[in-house]
Amino acid sequence: MEMTQTHRLPVPQQVAWEALNDTALLQHCIPGCESIEPDGDNAYLLSMTAAVGPVKAKFKGRMALQDIQAPDSYTIAFDGQGGAAGFGKGTAKVRLDPDGDETVLSYTVQAQVGGKIAQIGSRLVDGAARKMADTFFSRFSEAVSGGQAGDREPLAGEPTQATAADAEQTGEQAGEPTKRKRSWTAWISKS
After folding, report:
1. H or E element: which one contains 68?
2. Residue 73 bridge partners (DSSP)
3. Strand partners, 142
4. pTM (predicted TM-score)
């Protein structure tokens, strides 16, 4: 899988660089991220829950920052295991370019997935990856620009309220409890 995207951040390059190296901020912005812990120089252990189509699993992995050219670019090498759900590994080249008072962030990800996730099909895997990236950059842009707390995404463990838009997507009325989707965890562990 390869994915290339560009995002405009409403902050100067140095602010964007510092935010990209703030593990607490990144943990908040990465969908499903439960922890980011240091593991040596420019390396981190991650724990996160991700869903790709019907497969939902907890992934544990490691990421290392390489080819660091502060405040312009770095490469992230990552490797994660999700048990029976499969694995993901690859690299992400991240670049920051100043543009007046703003910064243009561009990245190219090259990744491989295996196990149950790979069996789902590339269309679903690519769609899930793009959705995660869009959610990350929406949260990240809001965080670096000082978005209001009322507009931010809730942190892991915080209670949430269904919005009209969420209800519309699920076909439910706002304020009604959502039905829990059938868990595929049992299916994954039996295979």
Report:
1. strand 55-69
2. 69, 95
3. none
4. 0.73
Residue type, 124: L
- pLDDT by residue for the chain (191 residues), tens only, comes to 899 999 999 999 999 999 999 999 999 999 999 999 999 999 999 999 998 888 899 999 999 999 999 999 999 999 999 999 999 999 999 999 999 999 999 999 999 999 998 888 888 889 999 999 999 999 999 999 887 433 434 434 333 333 333 333 334 444 444 343 333 333 334 44
Which sign, positive or negative, has the C-alpha torsion 118, 35, 41, 96? positive
Fold of 2-160: Alpha-D-Glucose-1,6-Bisphosphate; Chain A, domain 4 (3.30.530)
Please give the helix or strand (H or E) that residue 103 lies within, else none.
strand 102-114
- Indicate the domain borders of the chain: 2-160
Angle at the Cα of 163 (from 138 to 151), degrees rounded to 5?
Answer: 40
